[in-house]
């Protein structure tokens, strides 16, 4: 029997797990969602829900991974034998497969822009030209498919090397580099004339502008940015020794995610307000607005290149976890099978993602339920599969697993008190399902007809 790999250090686990969480949600999606929902008030609500909703759910997944000590599917089978609960992990595998299929498309766009920034192709353009450059780039099928494949190949090569030699080693390089580059960007942004308006927008909450829709968006964002509900945390925590302090690790990861969210806001909003642009630009913020801003700064393309490297590192560390979930289930700890399945599943994901990659070009006229292939995949993952997975995790841990087992797992290697444990348990059992259900109604558009 093959001995199961483990993270070599607690730092390696935290960086890898934080890397899984810190990706599109934290660096790309949060700034424009916060911009659309009033800034500071949204940030405050997001942080509150991160600690009362996302943190308990992360600890729940950690408890499953620690108890099972195997891949996500096997862990569910060991904890609840002769039941169908392992389908929650299979749902997570399916979610990660679909998610990586269109996530790699965006990762490819970042690679494309990184290449353009490094070769000077973005220099000297007028503000209105950046939008057309982006549209022409994503409409070119060969460019879109080529860079998507590059992104997938990098992901495959790292995951094929295993937990310590691949994922942990990459995280130890990429995450510190991400933090350092972000700090440099923040320092530059804060030196701009008018940066104070951006700081006020981010840190002076105006709760009079906070709508019920913004509260629900903040609630959903709190667990979307932490990869909750897709078995990522189950898989990574299963690679930990029994002596690891799970609550402390969970708090460290959540805190690191919030720190990156704040750095993203500090890097973007002062620059946006300094140049008199709208903070609610939406998803095009990264590819339209930021190039416009950086092009007008001394050494602007240098800083924009640094931002793209940050974003690429964040995207890759998240991609590693998505592929790892599937590969860990199929390989069962066998290093030879790991390499084989990393390539098989990685290429299958690339093929499955081809329609999403071509959604803005040759397949732009084809829609399903009035959505492009890309938008349909995004909608299915963000609005249905992830919330459903999170809901089932909360129900399984708080209603199916024994309370004594949960306390044993969370107190192993820690000094968690009965009071803190009980608070976590009841948040997970009663509060989290209600909040997740509210999010599901929100993303499905039900609240729009009610509120």
From TrEMBL:
The keyword Transport applies. One of its GO terms (cellular component) is membrane. The keyword Acyltransferase does not apply. Keywords: Membrane, Symport, Transmembrane, Transmembrane helix, Transport. InterPro entries: Na/ntran_symport, SNS_sf, YocR/YhdH-like. GO terms for molecular function: symporter activity. It holds the Pfam family SNF. It is a multi-pass membrane protein. Belongs to the sodium:neurotransmitter symporter (SNF) (TC 2.A.22) family. This is Transporter. It comes from Cerasibacillus terrae.
């Amino acid at each position: 029997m093959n001995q199961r790999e483990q993270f070599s250090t607690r730092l390696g686990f935290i960086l890898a797990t934080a890397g899984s969480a810190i990706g599109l949600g934290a660096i790309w999606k949060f700034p424009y969602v916060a911009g659309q929902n009033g800034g500071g008030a949204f940030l405050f609500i997001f942080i509150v829900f991160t600690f009362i909703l996302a943190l308990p759910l992360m600890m729940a997944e950690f408890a499953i991974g620690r108890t099972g000590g195997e891949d996500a599917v096997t862990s569910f089978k060991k904890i609840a034998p002769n039941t169908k609960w392992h389908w929650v992990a299979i749902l997570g595998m399916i979610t990660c497969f679909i998610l990586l299929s269109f996530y790699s498309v965006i990762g490819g766009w970042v690679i494309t822009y990184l290449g353009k920034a490094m070769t000077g192709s973005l220099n000297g353009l007028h503000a209105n030209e950046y939008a057309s450059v982006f549209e022409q780039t994503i409409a070119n099928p060969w460019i879109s498919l080529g860079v998507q494949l590059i992104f997938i190949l990098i992901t495959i090569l790292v995951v094929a090397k295993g937990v310590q030699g691949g994922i942990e080693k990459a995280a130890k390089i990429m995450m510190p580099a991400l933090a350092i580059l972000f700090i440099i960007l923040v320092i530059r942004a804060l030196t701009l004339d008018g940066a104070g308006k951006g700081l006020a927008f981010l840190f002076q909450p105006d709760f009079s502008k906070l709508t019920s829709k913004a509260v629900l968006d903040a609630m959903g964002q709190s667990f979307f940015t932490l990869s909750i509900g897709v078995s990522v945390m189950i898989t990574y925590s299963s690679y930990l020794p029994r002596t690891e302090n799970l609550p402390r690790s969970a708090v460290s990861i959540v805190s690191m995610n919030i720190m990156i969210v704040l750095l993203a806001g500090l890097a973007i909003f002062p620059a946006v307000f300094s140049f008199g642009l709208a903070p609610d630009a939406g998803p095009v913020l990264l590819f339209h607005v930021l190039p416009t801003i950086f092009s007008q700064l001394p050494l602007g393309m240098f800083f924009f290149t640094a931002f793209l490297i940050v974003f690429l590192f964040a995207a890759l560390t998240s991609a590693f976890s998505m592929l790892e979930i599937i590969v860990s289930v199929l390989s069962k700890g066998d290093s030879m099978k790991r390499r084989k399945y990393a390539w098989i599943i990685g290429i299958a994901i690339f093929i499955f993602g081809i329609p999403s990659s071509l959604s803005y070009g040759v397949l732009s006229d084809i829609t399903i339920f009035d959505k492009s292939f890309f938008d349909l995949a995004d909608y299915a993952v963000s609005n249905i599969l992830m919330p459903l997975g999170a809901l089932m995790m909360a129900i399984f841990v708080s209603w199916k697993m024994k309370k004594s087992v949960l306390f044993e797992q969370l107190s192993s290697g820690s000094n968690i008190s009965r009071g803190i444990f009980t608070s976590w348990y009841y948040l997970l059992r009663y509060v989290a399902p209600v909040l997740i259900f509210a999010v599901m109604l929100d993303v499905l558009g039900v609240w729009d007809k009610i509120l």
